[in-house]
């Protein structure tokens, strides 16, 4: 954490793309927060909204900024924080502004663009690989060399893969397999071991976001355009949003997804090489059937969010852990959303976005609610943070495992409240 802070502090004094000093979270007048369970479709919806003109957003989640500012685990070890938790709001604001942008990626087509892109990459590497301490001059040199040979510098994935190749000469731990890159650019892992990118503490959780230079947000943009955010832990800390953005009208999109699909996605993610959140070995040794037998790291590292009551599940089968995570996030949202935490709430079943028959009217209602102009044509459906190629009802191949895990009273209660009733599973996508 200290090393990351040092790199970011050094960069702040030299970055050519930093926000104006007057740009602060208090300048935001409109915020749209997507609240959902992990593996509930929030990454896709966040990307769809972020791709629209004049929308401000951070690439990926802002969970890393919570961790960077020590807004991580509450007294019970879960992601739930006390509403009055202490933190340095000015520092958090500076961190948030440094990642906030709008519009498509801006390729480094000239000397100024190169420096801007190098600053963006340096900032992200500090969050992703804090133990490596890779400074701006090193990254600028790597970008310069990568641009000489990169076959597709206008493509952010191709360019960043080339930059990584340059940096790995002196920093071999920078593993492309930890990134949300196309398979051809990720390559194959050195082995099949399940382990986090580094021991101890992950600030940004893998799969890591690919850095993209976008238009920085100034005070005027913050006042005129909506800021779209999403973090898997926001369901547990809704009051914090008001403290972060005190002058904003906060609209919350509560994105739901049937528990079978979400639990199946969580199950895949736990067994994937990404999604490590915390080393919990100081409290528990994990003995989760379906996960902990995959290696020593799987007895120490929790994946995704940590709901209240998680300690009761450290020796339960993985599918039950995943069901508890789904129910925990939505229970927190159901109980926590109200006039004190949101000015308006729209509940959207992700299935209505997936279904071509209901997609267009559903997205129209989402854009209208968020105060974002309707796009002129169909929106693109990017593949974001996926462990397998998305397809409807992928959970059915694991139905014998997933459906019994939903037969827990707390899970059934949440499912019923959200409209996912027992006996209707054949309708679930």
UniProtKB/TrEMBL annotation:
<dbReference type="InterPro" id="IPR027417">
    <property type="entry name" value="P-loop_NTPase"/>
</dbReference>
<protein>
    <submittedName>
        <fullName>Sulfotransferase</fullName>
    </submittedName>
</protein>
<feature type="region of interest" description="Disordered">
    <location>
        <begin position="1"/>
        <end position="20"/>
    </location>
</feature>
């Amino acid at each position: 954490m200290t090393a990351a802070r040092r790199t970011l502090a050094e960069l702040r004094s030299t970055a050519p793309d930093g926000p104006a000093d007057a740009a602060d979270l208090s300048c935001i007048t409109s915020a749209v927060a997507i609240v959902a369970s992990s593996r509930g479709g929030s990454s896709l919806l966040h990307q769809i909204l972020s791709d629209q003109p004049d929308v401000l957003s951070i690439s990926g989640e802002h969970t890393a900024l919570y961790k960077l500012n020590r807004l991580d685990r509450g007294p019970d070890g879960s992601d739930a924080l006390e509403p009055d938790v202490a933190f340095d709001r000015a520092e958090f604001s500076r961190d948030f502004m440094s990642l906030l942008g709008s519009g498509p990626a801006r390729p480094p087509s000239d000397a100024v663009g190169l420096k801007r892109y190098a600053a963006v990459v340096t900032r992200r590497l500090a969050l992703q690989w804090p133990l490596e301490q890779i400074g701006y001059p090193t990254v600028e040199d790597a970008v310069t060399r990568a641009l000489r040979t990169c076959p597709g510098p206008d493509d952010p994935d191709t360019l960043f893969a080339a930059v990584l190749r340059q940096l790995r000469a002196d920093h071999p731990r920078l593993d492309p397999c930890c990134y949300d890159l196309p398979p051809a650019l990720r390559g194959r892992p050195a082995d099949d071991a399940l382990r986090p990118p580094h021991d101890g503490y992950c600030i940004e959780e893998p799969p890591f976001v690919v850095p993209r230079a976008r238009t920085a947000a100034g005070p005027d943009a913050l006042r005129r355009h909506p800021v779209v955010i999403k973090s898997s832990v926001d369901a547990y800390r809704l009051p914090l949003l008001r403290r972060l953005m005190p002058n904003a009208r906060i609209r919350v999109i509560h994105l739901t997804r049937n528990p079978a699909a979400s639990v199946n996605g969580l199950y895949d993610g736990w067994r994937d090489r990404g999604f490590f959140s915390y080393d919990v070995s100081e409290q528990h040794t994990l003995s989760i059937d379906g996960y902990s037998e995959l290696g020593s790291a799987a007895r120490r590292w929790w994946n995704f969010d940590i709901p209240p009551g998680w300690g009761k599940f450290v020796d339960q089968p993985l599918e039950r852990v995943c069901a508890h995570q789904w129910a925990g996030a939505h229970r927190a949202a159901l109980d926590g959303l109200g006039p004190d935490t949101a000015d308006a709430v729209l509940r959207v079943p992700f299935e209505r976005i997936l279904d071509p028959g209901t997609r267009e009217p559903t997205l129209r209602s989402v854009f209208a609610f968020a105060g974002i102009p309707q796009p002129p044509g169909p929106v693109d459906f990017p593949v974001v943070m996926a462990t397998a190629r998305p397809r409807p009802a992928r959970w059915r191949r694991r139905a014998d495992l997933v459906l019994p895990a939903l037969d827990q009273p707390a899970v059934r209660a949440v499912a019923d409240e959200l409209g996912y009733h027992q006996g209707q599973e054949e309708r679930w996508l």
